[in-house]
Structure formats: C-alpha cells, structure tokens
Design a protein that fits this description.
Chain B: This is (2Fe-2S)-binding domain-containing protein. Chain B: Residues 1-77 form the 2Fe-2S ferredoxin-type domain. Chain B: It holds the Pfam family Fer2_2. The complex is a heterodimer of chains A (282) and B (161). Chain A has 282 residues and is of the alpha+beta class. In chain A, 35% of the residues lie in helices and 25% in strands. Chain A folds into two domains: 1-167, 2-Layer Sandwich (Uridine Diphospho-n-acetylenolpyruvylglucosamine Reductase, domain 3); 170-281, Enolase-like, domain 1. In chain A, a hairpin with a 2-residue loop joins strand 6 and strand 7. Chain A is globular, with a radius of gyration of 19 Å. Chain B is of the alpha+beta class and 161 residues long. Chain B folds into two domains: 3-77, Beta-grasp domain (Ubiquitin-like (UB roll), Roll), CATH 3.10.20.30; 82-158, [2Fe-2S]-binding domain (DNA polymerase, domain 1, Orthogonal Bundle), CATH 1.10.150.120. Chain B is built from five helices and seven strands. In chain B, the strands form two sheets. A five-stranded mixed beta sheet of chain B has the order 2-1-5-3-4, with helices on one face. Chain B starts with a strand and ends with a strand. Residues 155-161 of chain B have low confidence and may be disordered. Classes of the chains: A alpha+beta (282), B alpha+beta (161). Chains A and B meet through helix 5 of A and strand 4 of B. Bound molecules: flavin-adenine dinucleotide and FE2/S2 (inorganic) cluster (2 copies). One FE2/S2 (inorganic) cluster binds next to loops of chain B. One FE2/S2 (inorganic) cluster (FES) is lined by residues 96-101, 133-136 of chain B.
C-alpha cells in the first residue's frame, strides 16, 4: 500500500491502520476522538479511525454488552443507563470529563492512552470483568482487560471492541475530584458484586483508578471481603488497613500520592453503600 | 490537504495541515474570533462550536476531520439585527461580564435547552460543566435559562430590543 504523504490519513479498514502503523512506526499515532492526540501528539501523523464502519457499534442483550472502540463516552452512557449490573459503566461514561468531551472521547482512547492516568472507563470495565479484542497483523486476539492494562502490547494493534458479560449483580463507580465536576478525578473506585439479602457480597471485584499510573484490581481487598457480610463501615476499615500496603500513590499537580491513598477507604465505603441502596430498590 | 469547510452555511476552502485545530483556523485564518482561545486543552469550553448541531470543543478538533460537517460558530447563530432566545435571556438578566465564556456558553446551552426544554437547576448545572465562567458565579446564567420556562427556546430569533 502506498503511504500518502499527509499528516492526517483516514482509513476505512482496520488492516490499513495496522499497515500504516507498522510502516510509519513512532512517527504516527492512531487518532480516535482526538482529545488526547490533539494535546499531546500534534507532531505525528494521525491515522484516523473515524471512517471505519462498525467501530462505533454497541450491542446490549441479556447475556453480554459489546462496545466498539470508537463509541464515545456519551454513546456508552446512553446505551447502558438504567441497567443495575452496568451502573459503574454508566456513571464512568456519564460523569467523566464534560458534556462536550464526552461526545468526542472514545472507549479506545480511554483504554489505550498509556500516559493518561485518570481514565474512568478503565476501572469501571475492570470491575465488570471486561475482555478486549485487539486486531494485530497476526490476527484477532481476545484477552482480559486486566492483562491488557498490566502488560503493554508493544506490537502495533487496534483495540476493536470490549465485551462485558452480564450477570445479576450490582455495580457502582465513585470518583473524587477537587471540584464537583470537570477535572480529572483524584481517585476512582469501581466495584461490583452480587449481594445476598443478609449483606454478604459474592464474587466481589474492586478496581482502583487514578491512584497509580494505571487502573488495576484491588485483589487483596477482594480476598479479605468476598463472601463476607459487609457494611460500608466494615469494608472501609479493611480498605484503610490495606491501602498503603497495596498501592503507591501517584504524585501529580492535581494531588499528592498520600492523599489519593487516604481517600480510598471512603470511596470503597461509598461504592458498597451505593450498591446496597440499589439492591434495596432505592 | 485541500478541503471545503462548511462554516455558518458558507463553503470555505481550506488548504493546509489537516491537524490544525478548527479553533486556529477560525480565529487565525478566517478572523472569526467569537470562539475564544483560552485553555487549548478541552477544559474551559470557551472555544465551543456546534458540529452538525452538537457542541464540541474546537481546540481539539482537527480540521482534516471536518469535511462535510456543518460548523456553526457564535457568528452564525444570529445576525446583527436579531438575537436567539438564549442570547436575549442572557442580555435581559445582565449575565455577561467579560464575555470570554459566552460564545461557548450560548452554543452549549442552546443545544441543551433544545433537548431539555424544562430543566431543573441541578440539570442546568451539570450541563454547564465544561463551560467555565470566571466572572458571573453561574447563578444568574441559570436564572436566565430558567426564565425561558416551558416556552423553551421559543422562536429561534427575536428582534433586538
Ligand atoms: C478536558 C478533559 C477532561 C477529561 N476528563 C476525563 C475524565 O474525567 N475521565 C476520563 O476517563 N477521561 C477524561 N478525559 C478523556 C481522556 O483524557 C482522553 O482525552 C481520552 O480518553 C482519549 O480518548 P480519544 O478517543 O480522544 O483518544 P485519542 O486522542 O484519539 O487517542 C489517544 C491515544 O489512544 C490510542 N488509541 C485510541 N483508540 C485506539 C484504538 N481503538 N486502538 C488502539 N489505540 C487507540 C491512540 O493511539 C492515542 O495514542 C478528559 C479529556 C479532556 C480533554
Ligand atoms: S480553549 Fe478549547 S476548551 Fe478551553
Ligand atoms: S463573563 Fe467572564 S468568563 Fe464568563
């Protein structure tokens, strides 16, 4: 394929994007919504995915949610709002950034921008046990979002879509910011679990975002609290005991690492309170 | 790259780097200075324009992606003889101070009011996230929008008082 001598190339097939990425290497970048690359990578050649059909598709049925990488935060919020198991994702997509940015920034941009440390969709999808499907020059690969975030895929790839299994559980997403809205979150907790009427949490998944460079699961806290009766106070106490052992808070202009750790227990407690309230039909 | 931008109903030829932001092209090439260049990072909303009727930040939109899109800037929402209902309410409630935020505010809130003709105060506050106003304290802007009442946006344009 001839490489056009242009600084913004619109491709219509994923294979074209991969081909260009392979040939142009570090001099090019994928452009999805553009809200990161327009700020951070203006000197590179943009390979725009906007003209690829199907990448904005979202399908939701009783079994599974599938979201194309070019779906925007707003598209995702509109699609999942009202589903109790996907409440964490609806909040992450519907409350992050600002209305104008939510109409532009995409799922793929949120999960693939490794230098962006405050992604909301990443912890929400970790708590929902999402899988990502990538296109690479050697074919299609599906892996857990957790593996994708933990182990950088250095080969050229396009994140094609994300799959979320649906279960009869509840989820919540709690974010702390300096102001009520519009900033990056200082710390994020996403949580999902099935709640027994006596307050026991089953199959608990907790993900933390914005505290370290990349969102990740809080496995140690999950192990302590899974299959236990938990109130927001009891889980807060467990989280307070573990936070500084399990995370190294990130210092940045918007907040110090110690502060991000200090607020984590309260965010976990709030998330448990939120899922308990929705379970009671509040 | 050569392309045609459709700005406020007029075709405008563009020849240049497709990665330049729409904001740069509007202000520096076309001298449409209504959209303001403030943060350049998507946070403040001073540069908001409508793309196919939907408010977006023009500082993060590369022009190369806008061929075929209808771009509406503040210069295109009314002419020197007329004001839209939102502009008129802002004038009546005397909410404009330095004016840096207002082009973006008008374009964002006009879209929001069209979709939500009878919003609550809280809904207006969340819709305004991303349109930072350093002068007014927001409450009067909200009062002005609420004054549109159930008439919503009413007639698109009204004669300037
Ligand atoms: C003012 C502002 C506030 C924000 N606040 C928040 C917030 O509170 N929470 C939040 O979660 N986000 C927030 N964001 C969004 C976030 O910062 C990123 O801008 C956004 O997630 C990037 O998405 P994009 O689609 O614009 O990506 P782009 O800028 O187009 O791309 C970013 C990177 O992702 C890679 N990429 C994109 N799509 C793919 C794909 N399908 N496959 C492989 N690689 C890909 C590109 O190579 C590129 O390096 C905010 C953004 C702004 C501007
Ligand atoms: S200048 Fe575009 S959002 Fe601030
Ligand atoms: S009137 Fe000055 S910023 Fe809003």
């Amino acid at each position: 394929m001839e490489i056009p001598q242009q600084s913004l190339i619109s491709v219509t097939r994923v294979s074209q994007a991969l081909d260009l990425l392979t040939r142009l290497g570090e001099t090019a970048t994928v452009m999805a919504g553009g809200t990161w690359v327009m700020r951070e990578a203006r000197e590179r050649t943009f390979i725009s995915l906007a003209e690829i059909p199907d990448l904005t598709d979202i399908t939701l049925d009783d079994q599974v949610l599938v979201v194309g990488a070019m779906a925007t935060h707003q598209d995702i919020c509109n699609a999942v709002i009202g589903a109790p198991d996907l409440a964490a994702l609806a909040t992450a997509a519907g409350k992050s950034a600002t209305p104008a940015i939510r109409r532009m920034a995409t799922l793929g941009g949120n999960l693939c921008t490794r230098d962006f440390h405050s992604a909301d969709l990443a912890p929400a999808l970790l708590a929902l046990n999402a899988k990502v499907t990538l296109e690479t020059s050697s074919g299609r690969e599906t892996l857990s979002l957790e593996d994708y975030l933990n182990t950088p895929v250095d080969r050229p790839h396009i994140l094609h879509h994300v799959t979320v299994p649906r279960t009869s559980r509840r989820s919540a997403h709690v974010r702390l910011m300096q102001r009520q809205a519009g900033d990056y979150p200082l710390a994020v907790v996403s949580l999902s679990a099935a709640i027994h009427p006596d307050g026991t949490l089953h199959d608990l998944r907790i993900a933390v975002g914005s505290v370290e460079e990349r969102a990740r699961r809080w496995h140690a806290l999950e192990a302590l609290c899974d299959d236990q009766k938990m109130t927001s106070d009891s889980i807060r106490a467990h989280a307070a005991a573990r936070a500084s052992q399990d995370f190294v808070g990130r210092d940045a202009v918007d907040g110090q690492g110690w502060y991000r750790l200090r607020v984590l227990p309260a965010l976990v407690a709030q998330a448990v309170s939120d899922i308990s309230l929705t379970a009671q039909g509040a | 790259m050569v392309l045609t931008l459709m700005i406020n109903g007029d075709p405008v030829p563009y020849h240049g780097d497709p990665r330049r932001s729409l904001l740069e092209v509007l202000r520096d090439d076309l001298h449409l200075t209504g959209a303001k260049d403030v943060c350049g990072e998507g946070f403040c909303g001073a540069c908001i324009v409508q793309i196919d009727g939907v408010p977006k930040v023009s500082c993060l939109l590369p022009v190369g992606r806008l061929a075929g899109a209808e771009i509406t800037t503040i210069e295109g929402v009314s002419n020197s003889e007329t004001l839209t209902a939102v502009q008129k309410a802002f004038l009546e409630y005397d909410v404009v101070q330095c004016g840096m935020c207002f082009p973006g505010m008008v374009l964002s809130m006009t879209h929001f009011m069209a979709e939500n003709p009878s919003p609550t105060r809280a809904e207006l506050k969340s819709a305004m996230t991303g349109n930072i106003c350093r002068c007014t304290g927001y409450e009067r802007i909200i009062d002005a929008l609420l004054s549109l009442g159930s008439n919503g946006l009413g007639p698109v344009e009204e004669v300037r008082p």
